[in-house]
């Protein structure tokens, strides 16, 4: 074989090996999701805007932690990602999917709040050089909850899925509002007062009027309360006033019409508050009130029995002292 042909063969062989090694985590992510019967597929919902829909379930080994909705916005210079998913397996599959739609670098990973299904994939995006962005309260929340999350979810979803997961706080913080320029496209980030959590952040793409609402919006799956029921309700009108035409909720179908996406959630939260207020007026003890508060909503939501009593318990003291 001529020497130049041998050289080309060797060079090409090394190049393929290098590419394969670099892509291995992403390929592993896709393969692991496929083995679980899941497919990581980004759906185009507007010009330069893509979303992944998570499954309507609690995090488990069976669903690879892929239960939250995730997003991508592509500018002329760079990419922003909204939330990283519930495991490194999912995050690496996410990165591979982004690579199929654009060669532009992922400049920002925006965490909408602290919950594991939205932040357990952060390490994968740190490895590709993304700046992690979050609410001003997010570092404190992760410091307080991080060790508990790592321990409890290891028990819930298993060691294999937790491999490599780290609690990684944002390095760019949003006090009130912040704009991120992706080149020809500016994202508007807004920090909210306590609602779903005390560190909720929304992302609005004004170019396409698309809102990434995080877990300030649930559709189908029961809203979970880890912040302030009354604060959530007080901010509902301001949330609805955002000039979006479509939204990506934290959980549920994507995209959803805006502000109609808020209708069922608002109703549930109002019913929950009303029932707790009545229980307090009637002198019903907490242990009994949480069994009936919000019960009329049971047929409207997935995972109602998993979360409603916890929501009622969290809200009872707040409503009692309002």
UniProtKB/TrEMBL annotation:
Alphabetized InterPro entries for the sequence: Metallo-B-lactamas, NDM-1-like, RibonucZ/Hydroxyglut_hydro, SoxH-rel_PQQ_2
Domain Metallo-beta-lactamase: start-end pairs: 67-251
SMART domains: Lactamase_B
Xref: SUPFAM superfamilies: Metallo-hydrolase/oxidoreductase (SSF56281)
Keyword Hydrolase among UniProt keywords: yes
Record's keyword annotation contains Cell membrane: no
Domain of life (superkingdom): Bacteria
Gene Ontology molecular function: any one: hydrolase activity
Similarity remark: Belongs to the metallo-beta-lactamase superfamily. Class-B beta-lactamase family.
Official protein name in the record: MBL fold metallo-hydrolase
Organism (species): Mesorhizobium wenxiniae
């Amino acid at each position: 074989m001529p020497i130049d042909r041998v050289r080309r063969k060797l060079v090409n062989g090394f190049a393929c090996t290098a590419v394969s090694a670099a892509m291995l985590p992403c390929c592993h992510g896709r393969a692991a999701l496929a083995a679980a019967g899941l497919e990581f597929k980004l759906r185009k919902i507007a010009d330069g805007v893509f979303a992944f829909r998570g499954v309507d379930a609690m995090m488990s080994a069976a669903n690879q932690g892929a239960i939250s909705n995730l997003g991508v916005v592509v500018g002329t210079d760079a990419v922003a990602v909204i939330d990283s998913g519930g495991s490194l397996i999912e995050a690496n599959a996410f990165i591979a999917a982004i690579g199929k739609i654009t060669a532009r670098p992922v400049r920002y990973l925006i965490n909408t709040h602290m919950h594991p299904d939205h932040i357990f994939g952060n390490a994968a995006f740190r490895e590709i050089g993304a700046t992690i962005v979050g609410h001003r309260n997010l570092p404190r929340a992760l410091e307080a909850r991080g060790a508990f999350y790592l321990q409890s979810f290891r028990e819930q979803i298993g060691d294999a899925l937790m491999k490599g997961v780290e609690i990684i706080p944002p390095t760019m913080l949003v006090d009130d509002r912040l704009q991120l320029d992706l080149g020809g496209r500016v994202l508007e980030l807004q920090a909210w007062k306590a609602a779903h959590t005390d560190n909720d952040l929304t992302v609005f793409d004004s170019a396409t009027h698309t809102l990434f609402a995080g877990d300030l919006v649930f559709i189908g799956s029961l809203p979970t309360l880890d912040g302030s029921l009354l604060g959530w309700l007080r901010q509902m009108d301001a949330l609805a006033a955002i000039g979006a035409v479509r939204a990506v909720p934290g959980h549920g179908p994507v995209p959803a019409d805006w502000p109609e996406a808020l209708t069922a959630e608002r109703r549930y939260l109002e019913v929950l508050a009303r029932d707790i207020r009545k229980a307090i007026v009637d002198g019903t003890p907490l242990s009994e009130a949480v069994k009936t508060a919000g019960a009329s909503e049971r047929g409207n939501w997935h995972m109602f029995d998993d979360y409603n009593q916890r929501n009622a318990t969290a809200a009872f003291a707040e409503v009692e002292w309002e």
